[in-house]
Automatic annotation (TrEMBL):
<dbReference type="Pfam" id="PF13439">
    <property type="entry name" value="Glyco_transf_4"/>
</dbReference>
<dbReference type="InterPro" id="IPR028098">
    <property type="entry name" value="Glyco_trans_4-like_N"/>
</dbReference>
<dbReference type="GO" id="GO:0016757">
    <property type="term" value="F:glycosyltransferase activity"/>
</dbReference>
<feature type="domain" description="Glycosyltransferase subfamily 4-like N-terminal">
    <location>
        <begin position="47"/>
        <end position="156"/>
    </location>
</feature>
<protein>
    <submittedName>
        <fullName>Glycosyltransferase</fullName>
    </submittedName>
</protein>
Length: 344
């Protein structure tokens, strides 16, 4: 994309503006207001066009259709196709909750519609895929669902770690890979504790870097503004992301404050074989069970554990890499087993 253009929003069409206007408070406010009124989300017209194109050009009576969120309006494709042709098999892959998601920008007056839409997807789909048992438990407690049609399949990794090797760096690099959001996961408390611990450790701070890889929320950006050894890093390809993993000594996972989902990058984290500091608030955080009790994983409770534990872990595992031979995540097998069921 031309550097003078910036994608602001997609509402069936792409709205581009000159880069020198992309940070305009007025423009940003217009976009935010628009998103508050577009139900189920701002990608709805785009997904309606996909549903129409598929139905007119490609649809066959016994098709298997898989819709994946986010965005949640993707599942509208499945609802419409199922309405037109009840014989199709529809698999809804749902990674996040919708109607009670704290990041949802719709006005509260849309809440009844959001719940109705969410429920219709869960009931009308032939199979449902969740990425963790925690999300499954959440939805079973919220709606009366047939548990036999629910399958747990993790997100998987975009990176192939088969021939993974470490790249030398003169710095100790701790990386958080992923996005932060208000109010779900802002990383401020975690980073504050980590910086406090490092400052008390006696380590040479000039030889330490913390990388925040992805789109970070305003609160976190403001918090690190004067910290030259904390860097926001962007990558545009899988090879760039692999290089970041290769240079990283220890991975950081920030805690979800008020959301039951499993961070999408945890599959990559596990497969990398790198040490992980997993911050959490409560023992019901799904990341704890998902990551397991490996020696190179520290589950650190934010409210009542001493920062000194962080230093002990960092000093012990800063040069550690767990070489995972013949690593299999089993995701391909899980999907193949599910696809076989669609033919029964």
């Amino acid at each position: 994309m031309d550097q003078t253009e910036s994608l602001v929003s997609r509402v069936g069409i792409k709205i581009f503006v000159q880069q020198n206007l992309s940070n305009s408070p007025i423009l940003s406010r217009i976009v935010r207001v628009l998103k508050k009124f577009i139900w189920p989300d701002s990608y709805v017209f785009h997904n309606l066009s996909i549903a129409n194109s598929y139905w007119l050009r490609y649809s066959k009576p016994l098709d298997v259709v898989i819709t994946i969120s986010q965005p949640f309006s993707t599942h509208l494709i499945g609802l419409l196709l199922k309405l037109k042709n009840p014989k199709i098999c529809w698999i809804a892959d749902i990674g996040d909750n919708y109607s009670e998601n704290p990041t949802n920008s719709l006005y509260p007056l849309f809440r009844p519609l959001m719940k109705y839409y969410e429920k219709r997807i869960l009931i009308k789909s032939d199979f449902i895929v969740f990425n963790s048992e925690f999300i499954k438990t959440y939805y079973l407690s919220k709606y009366l669902l047939d548990s036999n049609k629910i399958h747990i399949i993790p997100n998987g990794s975009a990176i192939d770690f088969t021939h993974f090797y470490k790249l030398h760096s003169d710095h100790l690099i701790l990386s958080y890979i992923g996005n932060t959001y208000e109010p779900v996961r802002n990383g401020v408390r975690e980073l504050g504790l980590l910086l406090q611990a490092l400052s008390m450790s006696g380590m040479d701070l000039e030889k330490i870097e913390i990388w925040l890889v992805g789109k970070q929320c305003d609160a976190l950006i403001a918090f690190i503004q004067q910290m030259k050894w904390v860097k926001i890093v962007y990558c545009d390809s899988e090879s760039d992301l692999l290089t970041i993993y290769q240079k990283t000594n220890i991975l950081l996972n920030f805690a979800n404050i008020n959301y039951p989902g499993l961070p999408s990058k945890l599959d990559e984290y596990k497969q990398s074989g790198l040490p992980i500091i997993n911050f959490y608030f409560g023992s019901d955080d799904p990341a704890i069970n998902y990551l397991g009790n490996e020696e190179h994983i520290l589950n650190f409770k934010l409210e009542n554990q001493e920062p000194s534990m962080l230093i002990s872990f960092i000093e012990k595992y800063r040069n550690f890499h767990f070489k995972q031979v013949g690593l299999e995540d089993g995701i391909d097998t899980l999907w193949l087993e599910l696809i076989k069921k669609t033919n029964q």
